[in-house]
Amino acid sequence: MASSDLEDLCFHINMKISTIKKTLQLRNIGQEPSLKSMLCKIGHEMVLLHDLLNKMETEVQQQEKLKDLLKELQKSAERDQNEAQHLRENIPAHLPKPTQSCITGPTVKCEEQTKVVEPERAKKPTKEPRLIKEAPLITAEEFESVPAYMKGRLTYDQINAVVQEVNKAVVGKYKILHQPLKSMNAAVRNLYHRFLEEETKDTKGAGLRPAEG
Q1: Angle 23-24-25 from CA coordinates, rounded to 5°
Q2: CA-to-CA distance for 144 and 34, rounded, in angstroms?
Q3: C-alpha angle 70/74/76, rounded to 5°?
Q4: With CB atoms counted within 10 Å of each terminal CB, which end of the chain scores lower, N or C?
Q5: Among 109, 106, 86, residue whose Cα is nearest residue 98
Q6: How far is CA 131 from the centre of its chain?
Q7: Rounded to 5 degrees, what are φ and ψ at 134?
Q8: Are 176 and 188 in contact (CB under 8 A)?
């Protein structure tokens, strides 16, 4: 056996012995009560350090990917720059140059377009508004002319309140009859058809009158 091989073998054996000694020392230290808390703290810090190294490794990998993307972007920008430089240096001499009329033409045209006045739209004839007839309220004089035996049944205010409720119902009815069908919902449309069925030749249009000028 060569001397070099023997020296390597001795070095290897000595390293193993040294490792075993250190292991035994650590085991003996771990059994001492005064050092257990410190060893636990060191173990906890080792776990945190391991997690931190994993995060750093992940961050390094992401930075490497970003670096590769930036390199590709740089190469693409350099290609575009070279192409633009080539086009700039090799412009054909026979291309026509823009004249003053070509430059000012579109702007003048736009100004002319802005000056064009739109023709006034024909105004649609406004429909004559329809007013709904309402029953007038009774006056104090009319109430006083009522026979005495009838005054005890309803008071003056009660009679006018009834007249107002009747007027309100009539206005609501004829507003529905005058409303376009397309704007009605299902409930209003049912009322509309019911009101039409209730109309007779004597009552048709009786509640409506043209607006007074």
Answers
A1: 90
A2: 115
A3: 115
A4: C
A5: 106
A6: 45
A7: -125, 145
A8: yes
